[in-house]
Structures are given as C-alpha cells and as structure tokens.
Design goal:
alpha/beta; 8-stranded mixed beta sheet; 13 helices; 17 strands; binds guanosine-5'-diphosphate
Length: about 425
C-alpha cells in the first residue's frame, strides 16, 4: 500500500501548482484524458524509485459559508488522519500570515512528519525572505518555487526519505478485487450478494487494515480477496459526509487491488464522478470492469439503455478497453457472469509474453508502419522486453526516446493489445535510451 502525502496550507499559496507539477505526465496514455486530470485531487506520483499518493487540498476553500478558520481546522484534521506525511505550504514572499500559526500548531501536536515549504521563492534572490518562518517552530524551511521548480529536488528528496518501507506484495495467487463507485450505486448490495452466494466459501479470518477489511474467499476452486473499503459491508447508518475527502478510501483500496469493479447506476447514466473513479483506476494501472448495476430497472426500457451505452462510449472512452457487464445486485442477475469477467481479465492482467515473441511481433509492427521520420531525426528500435505483470509492462530500447510521438505510442499500445491478447487490460510501455 503506498503512502499518502498531503499538501496543505492557506488558499493561494500554490498548493495546486505543486500538485500539478509533481503529478504531471509520466504516462502519456493516462494523462491525455481531458477532464479527468484537470481537477483530480489524488495522483500517483513517482519520485526517484519511490511511489506515493499525493493529495491536493486546493479548492476546499470555496465550499460553503463556514468561517474560514473552521474550514482550515477541518481540513487539517482530515489531512492528518489520512496521510503519512504533510507538506505544509506557506507564501514565502508574504511572510507568516493569519492562520499559518494555528495550522503549524495543530500539525506539531499531530506528531506527523511535516515539511514546511516556503513557496513563490522563484530564485536565490528571494531566499532571504524565508528565515522568518522558523518562528513557526519547524526544524527546516524549504524554499520552493512550485511554478518554476526551484528547490523542488531538495524538498522532495527529503520527503521521500521519510516514506515508510513498502511492504512487498503478498505472494499468493488470489485475485484482489475492489468494488468501487459513488454512493448508492449498489456496492454493499453487490458485496453482500457475492459473499452470500452458495458457491462462495468465505474464510474465517479477515485481514484488517486501518482503512479496509480484506475478505478472502474461494469460488469454484479459485481464490479471491475482496477489499471491502470500510463501510461497504457493514455500512453505518450515518452516511459519511460527502466531501472531497470521501474518495480517499476508494483511492487507497485501488492501491491494494488488482482489479476494480466500478459500479455505475444504469438508471441514472454516467456522471462525472464515475469518470473520475475510472481515471484513478487507470492512473494506477489497475484492471477495470464497468458494472452497469440496477439493470433490472432499465432492461425493459430501450431508450434509457441506448442513452446509457452512448454515454459510456462518450464519457468513458479513455477506458474503452475495460470489459462491461450489466447486472443487478438486487436480483442477482449476472453476478455469476461477473466472475467470468474477473477471471478473464485477471489472466490478461498477469500475462507474461516471452522476450522472443515480443521482438518478433514488434518487427512485424514496424514493417506494417515504421516510426515516422521527424525533422529531428529517425527513431530506431533495438530491443524490447516485458519487465512486469499486473499490468503487463514493456520496455522498448531506442536510440532517442524524445523522438517518439504520442500517436505512434498509442498505435504501438493498440498493436500490443491486439497481438498479445491484452485487449481488456491496461498496459504500460516505456521507452529507454540504449
Ligand atoms: P492554491 O490555492 O494553494 O492551490 O494555489 P495555486 O496553486 O492555485 O496558486 C495560487 C497562485 O500563486 C497562482 O496564481 C499561481 O500561479 C501562483 N504561484 C504558485 N506557485 C508559484 C511560484 O512558485 N511562484 C510564483 N511567483 N507564483 C506561484
Ligand atoms: P452503496 O452506497 O453503493 O453501497 O449502495 P447500496 O448497496 O447501499 O444500494 C443503494 C440502494 O440501491 C439500495 O436501496 C439498494 O437496495 C438499491 N440497489 C442496489 N442494487 C440494486 C439493483 O441492482 N437494482 C435495484 N433496483 N436497486 C438496487
């Protein structure tokens, strides 16, 4: 499970700017999704050889008409609860402002590891301004320009040193499945329906983490782990306040699953939050199944069905490879079929292609369509290999990675999917200089 790092601070200090800089395109296939990446609040970030989940709290400020400091207090409390490390950002040019001291005080009391970033220090000439911030009681002040990158390395290298050791992935054959979706789509109904089925044998001892319960079960001889985000199965009567933080549990369970079953409410169509959840799953390279739940309500209504399918094609185009299934958690219709989809996708998700085959196929693809000659020179491929599974990940060694055009990358990915039998799973392709 990856750690969560949160950027916190008063409005306008530059939190979103830092978030965007750190989460920027590392994988063109993922980031070229209009609308998804623009206003997301969590991102999977790589720094050096570490990976973590970054949370942005920018934009919280506008909600409601609560007094400003109440809002900040709530935000700090949540951030402390949900994250492992906090980047506390202040405006390095303005000096200490009302609010900064109280935030600093709350963070000190929390016992969490906190890094103070004095932002908008766009070069060494502004650094003199930062000394004042030691009054906030921190050990070190990191001058930063989120906009230009100045000081970023110094800060982030220290931050990642504080990340706890990652626990290696459990070495077992079980497919780890998370059921996700916005409130009321039918998650708990589906989970209960699955676990209540006669074919399913639930093991006695659930593994419990801070955020979720892992329910291990066997169905027709195959092992699964259902990651029950706290609250799905034994849902509390009091609905969790729907704020922007409420998705953090879903995002965390994505870190721990192989496949995500994202439920949509077929009777309501596709909404923005559905797309966002799919975006998070894709961002993390998780296998994805779109479950069109409450099918019982629309199956006799061709108009609604047609509208739904066209909304899927339009709004969830970026995950067009994800298998879809219509089902009803209420009647149980197609719940068995869901497992066929899970098994099939899970096989693709963990599939290994031999290096010999990868290179033979790559050769064919180049014959079909060689990389275009650009003004800057010609791209040459030397050798390719699959370096990982879950999801299948390939590395292509080339003369100059900067020459690869996005459209050619997409073409290659589509060819790989088609020719290696990976049509339903996300895949990753990296280019390295030889
Ligand atoms: P947030 O409300 O804390 O998320 O702040 P934003 O990221 O939206 O930034 C607020 C304003 O500060 C924007 O106009 C940014 O362009 C500007 N800004 C952010 N980082 C820097 C920086 O490093 N240097 C300068 N000069 N301006 C910055
Ligand atoms: P969650 O918030 O995503 O866990 O959703 P719930 O499982 O609590 O379901 C929300 C509501 O939708 C409940 O009233 C369920 O009975 C209902 N519901 C769930 N699945 C279905 C379904 O397949 N068909 C119909 N008609 N209603 C359903």
């Amino acid at each position: 499970m990856t750690s969560v790092i949160t950027i916190l601070g008063r409005p306008n200090v530059g939190k979103s700017t830092l978030f965007n800089r750190l989460s920027r395109s590392r994988d063109a296939l993922v980031d070229d999704i209009p609308g998804i990446t623009r206003d997301r609040l969590y991102a999977s970030v790589h720094w050096g050889d570490r990976t973590f989940t970054l949370m942005d709290t920018g934009g919280f400020d506008e909600v409601g008409d609560e007094p400003f400091m109440d809002l900040v207090r709530e935000q700090v409390r949540k951030a402390v609860e949900e994250s492992d490390i906090i980047i506390f950002m202040v405006d390095g040019r303005q000096g200490i402002m009302p609010g900064d001291e109280e935030i600093a005080h709350m963070l000190r009391r929390s016992g969490k590891k906190v890094f103070l970033a004095a932002n908008k220090i766009d070069g060494p000439e502004h650094e003199g301004l930062t000394a004042d911030f030691y009054r906030l009681g921190v050990e070190k002040v990191f001058p930063l320009s989120a906009a230009h990158g100045y000081g970023l390395k110094a800060l982030m290298n220290e931050v990642v040193k504080e990340l706890p050791e990652e626990t290696p992935e459990e070495n077992d054959e079980a497919v780890r499945v998370a059921v996700l979706g916005r409130p009321n789509v039918g998650k708990s109904s589906l989970v209960n329906r699955i676990l209540g089925s006669e074919r399913v044998l639930v093991s006695d001892i659930p593994g419990t983490t801070r955020d979720s319960v892992d329910i291990r079960f066997t169905r027709r001889g195959r092992d699964y782990v259902l990651i029950d985000t706290a609250g799905i199965r034994r849902k509390s009567k009091v609905r969790e306040k729907i704020d922007k933080f409420s998705m953090i549990k879903a995002v965390k369970s994505l870190d721990r699953c192989h496949l995500a079953v994202v439920l949509l409410d077929a009777s309501e169509g596709v909404v923005e939050q559905d797309a966002r959840i799919c975006g998070y799953a894709l961002d993390r390279g998780r296998g994805l199944i779109l479950g069109l739940n409450k099918w019982d309500l629309v199956k006799h209504d061709p108009d609604t069905r047609r509208r739904l399918l066209s909304a899927l094609d339009r709004q969830l185009k970026f995950v067009s490879f994800a298998p879809r299934i219509t089902l009803s958690a209420r009647t149980g219709e197609h719940v068995g079929k869901l497992f066929e989809k899970i098994d099939h996708l899970s096989d693709q998700y963990g599939k290994r292609i031999g290096t010999g085959e990868v290179n033979r196929v790559l050769e064919k693809i180049f014959q079909l369509k060689p990389p275009p000659l650009t003004g800057k020179g010609r791209l040459k491929f030397f050798y390719a290999t699959q370096i990982d599974v879950r999801p299948p990940t390939f590395v292509l060694f080339v003369n100059r990675p900067e020459l690869i055009h996005f459209s050619y990358e997409r073409f290659l990915a589509n060819q790989f999917r088609e020719r290696f039998g990976l049509d339903q799973t996300p895949i990753r392709i990296f280019f390295r200089k030889r």
